[in-house]
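ligand=zinc ion
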Amino acid sequence: MMLQKLPIMCAVFSDFSINWTRSTTKMAKRYNLQRIKTLSTYSAQEIADLIGVHVRTVHVWYTKGLPKIDERRPFLVRGCELKEFLQKMAADRKKPCRPDEMYCVSCRAPRKPANRVVETQAINKKKVLIIGKCDICGTKMNRFASARNISQIVKLFEKHKEHKVNLSVSKNSIVNTDKQGDLFQ
Ligand SMILES: [Zn+2]
């Protein structure tokens, strides 16, 4: 029974490992503010296209204080104010996630998981990967936690599903997990 199940678990696990690598690559990328013309005005879609985010992310930025010229639709944003807003957000981003949040690479901000549902996956005896979906944009979010705190951490969420994986398999399937700095302490 155990042997039959194993290949499926490995497949799931390698998917997590790919996602993790992609996430860290994206995280390192910054907005190219050079492309924003300070004297131009932009719609949400134009902003999304210009800096490579989802249009819903721009709508989130409105709620977080991205100034619109007026309340007429489609909303327009001055380039100079967009630049200023993104610079301020980059400074704010240095704030760490709260215990019940994870970093969303699409929103580029700490987010709570949708419906407060998370999945966990043991990486090794010390580390657990927590997976959730961003409550704003639906992007898959990952966060690492120490195994000794995991029972406390999952209590912060409404629902929790645990993926059980043979540890000797997972050790070989994932690399560079030590480089992940986002550990729950
Ligand atoms: Zn998001």
